[in-house]
Design goal:
Blueprint (H helix, E strand, L loop, with lengths): L9 E4 L14 E4 L5 E5 L9 E5 L10 E9 L7 E9 L9 E2 L3 E7 L7 E4 L2 E2 L9 E9 L7 E3 L5 E4 L10 E10 L6 E11 L7 E3 L2 E2 L3 E2 L7 E4 L2 E3 L10 E5 L4 E4 L11 E4 L10 E9 L7 E11 L7 E2 L23 E2 L13
């Protein structure tokens, strides 16, 4: 009997026979207790009545695939004689069960440097029906964000979801995949589940630093403690320890880094003068600022700071001789060149222009 048969359906049975006559051959039938079936005799005065098995409650093959009943025929004699037979009713499957996943949500975590071809997760759906009604095929129904449609693939037979594209935590850190399992029944039924993929950050971004304002050139007579540069631009696209930055300066004889009191992540130290400058010794300072993140291994970003020293009038003219010894004839005429003195000033511009008196 088909599982989809409706209550009230009738199935003819072969009645019993009795070799007696009269009341001794008048047969009545009873069925062993069953909530799904009853016996119905067709109203007839004939010796052999038509007999039907009537379905009283819908069948469910997944609950009871086979029903075993005992049909008893009793005659009208005194004493009554009986005959019995067993009814073995096999329930034929109908596609009345949709595939069911063993989890409604699969939570997966993968680092962003996972290589293509890696198995993301294997989903599994079962169908309580049998035959083609329980054969399941899988497909990716929707992917969020939609731009990731080429990032994942699924084997329609095994339910294996594999990575077919690259992951980038900084671009997308969570994927929502809707998976559908469909059986091959008529009509086909479907079940659904979700795969939530969390992308884990890998330290694949080096810090970036840039100068917001640079006081160039710096006066040679600037006092120790002067802020030479405000370096408020630093960033790392990673998160957590991979984005925690520390800083070094090289060389650091004349300058140091002063960490701001603010706890904002993108602030980096100010560049401060720690030793007096001397343009005549070092006219240009070339510094390298390095930002290192806390990843393992650590990545770094660098920036070159070029600081020119502006001349201050801190050098007096120096004669090339402290004493000039000259011999002059007593008869020398007025206007005669006695000697030429020469003084040099290591400063620049007007600070190096010398007049004599």
């Amino acid at each position: 009997i088909a599982e989809s048969s409706l209550p009230g359906s009738r199935f003819p049975l072969e009645g019993a026979s009795d070799a007696d006559i009269g009341a001794n051959a008048q047969l009545s039938y009873t069925l062993s207790p069953s909530e799904h079936f009853r016996i119905e005799e067709e109203n007839s005065n004939s010796r052999s009545k038509s007999l039907f098995l009537v379905l009283t409650k819908s069948l469910d093959r997944e609950t009871i695939p086979v029903h075993r009943l005992v049909l008893t025929a009793s005659d009208g004699g005194r004493p009554s004689l009986t005959g019995t037979m067993e009814l073995v009713i096999s329930v034929l499957d109908a596609n009345d069960n949709a595939p069911q996943f063993n989890q409604s949500v699969y939570n997966v975590r993968l680092p962003e440097d996972t290589i293509q071809g890696t198995l993301v997760v294997r989903v599994n759906a079962t169908d309580l029906d049998e035959g083609s009604n329980r054969a399941v095929k899988y497909e990716l129904d929707t992917i969020v964000p939609p731009s990731a449609s080429d990032t994942f693939s699924i084997d329609e037979n095994s339910g294996d979801i594999k990575l077919t594209g690259g992951l980038d935590f900084e671009a997308v850190n969570l994927y929502d995949l809707s998976v559908k399992a469909t059986d091959k029944g008529t009509p086909p039924l479907s079940g659904h589940c979700k795969v939530l993929l969390e992308v884990l950050d890998v330290n694949d971004n080096a810090p970036e630093v840039w100068v917001t304002s640079l006081s160039v050139p710096v006066p040679e007579d600037a006092s120790v403690g002067t802020v030479v540069a405000l370096l408020s631009g630093a960033s790392d696209a990673d998160i957590g320890a991979n984005a925690q930055l520390s800083y070094t300066l090289s060389p650091s004889e004349h300058f140091s880094l002063d960490l701001p009191k603010s706890n904002e992540r993108n602030l980096i130290p100010d560049l401060v003068l720690t030793k007096s400058l001397d343009r005549e010794t070092i006219p240009v300072h070339r510094l390298v600022l390095t930002a290192s993140d806390g990843g393992r291994p650590s990545l770094t970003g660098t920036m070159e700071l070029v600081i020119s020293v502006v001349d201050a009038n801190d050098n007096a003219p120096q004669f090339n001789q402290s004493v000039y010894r000259v011999q002059l004839l007593e008869s020398a005429a007025v206007g005669t060149l006695v000697t030429r003195v020469n003084a040099m000033d290591p400063d620049l511009g007007s600070n190096s222009e010398v007049t004599y008196a």
